[in-house]
Amino acid sequence: MTSPATAKPTTASSTANNAPIPFIDLAAQRARIGARIDEKVLDVLASCRFVNGPEVGAFEEQLAAFAGAKHAVSCSSGTDALALLLMAWGVKAGDAVFCPAFTFCATAEVVPYVGATPVFVDVKADTFNMDPESLEQAIAVAVEQGLTPRVVIPVDLFGQPADYDAILPIAEKHGLKVLCDTAQGFGGTWNNKRTGSIGDATATSFFPAKPLGCYGDGGAILTDDAELVTVLKSLREHGQGVDKYQNVRIGMTARLDTIQAAVLIEKLAIFEEEIAARDRVARRYNELLKDVATVPVVDARATSVWAQYTIRLAPGVRDGLADKLKAQGVPTAVYYRLPMHLQPAYKHYPSAGAILPVCETLAEEVISLPMHAYLDETTQDRIVAAVKQALAEG
Length: 394
What we know:
InterPro entries: DegT/StrS_aminotransferase (IPR000653), PyrdxlP-dep_Trfase (IPR015424), PyrdxlP-dep_Trfase_major (IPR015421), PyrdxlP-dep_Trfase_small (IPR015422). Keywords: Aminotransferase, Pyridoxal phosphate, Transferase. One of its GO terms (molecular function) is pyridoxal phosphate binding. About 40% of the residues lie in helices and about 15% in strands. The protein is an alpha/beta fold and about 400 residues long. It folds into two domains: about 35-270, Type I PLP-dependent aspartate aminotransferase-like (Major domain) (Aspartate Aminotransferase, domain 2), CATH 3.40.640.10; about 270-394, Aspartate Aminotransferase, domain 1 (Alpha-Beta Complex). Strand 6 (about 190) and strand 7 form a beta hairpin. The radius of gyration is 21 Å and the shape is globular. The model is unreliable at about 5-15 (pLDDT under 50).
């Protein structure tokens, strides 16, 4: 079998001058396992059990085993996974939930859903993950404003776990629940523990672009807390009790459909291989680009699944580089141009400080290059050459 890292690109001409390169090559993965997925999807179609079919339970069992957690509760998206946990814990108006400001909006948007207040935290300059010192400052700000600290949501950004050695003791000291947002980091490890087995509970996403993605929206919660699982399963089914026509709490509809579970079973089967392939691609990028950019750093205690490969450049360089690469068929992306505490919908919420200097600096300097498990060396060399040429031209 051809390994993911050396698989041929889907389009034979993708290495030709200016031929478009996919940012994330889902087609290459489909070429590898598409027939198996099609067979499993056809099984679901034949059974007509499109909601809560047996594939859902099977996937939950396999996912929990992979992560080293006792339980997995699948759901309709990573955002719903976050929201369900806040609902299950009874987070409400007057409560403070601490979120890094350098993240996708879903991490914070679920907090106002339940009436609580997001409080934004700065990140570390090397890993881009939550800064424990800034978290302490944010907790003090929340208390000064009369809020009750309830939950901290560390984000495993770009595939790398947050600094749980520092964050977990802070949470314990202040009585905070730890909700690990590993939407980008599922499959990574911290001190040899998989994300999904850290903190009080973990939320993840199976959006198609994620390292473990389905063919639509999907998500899951992982936890060792059996009582929490009971509440979560009720909440995702309209707050049902003994059956769907008894409602014991205010819930929502947030199920993972059976077809997506079938897709994810097949993708999970090759996930370990793809993680290893992503790491090889990232290490090669680092070696080839270390002299022209600030390349990503992985904490010695961690492994990353490399949801994104993100470099830093001098201020004012990024957008020009993106334009030149686009002209050569090399796509880029910026995660994130505007930190959460500066977003129009969120800027009235409190933060650890009047400014969050690292978040604001990163927003001006970061750019992400194509990254997936099927990025062959020839295509990667083309990307690197384009980056070096563009930076040399100034």
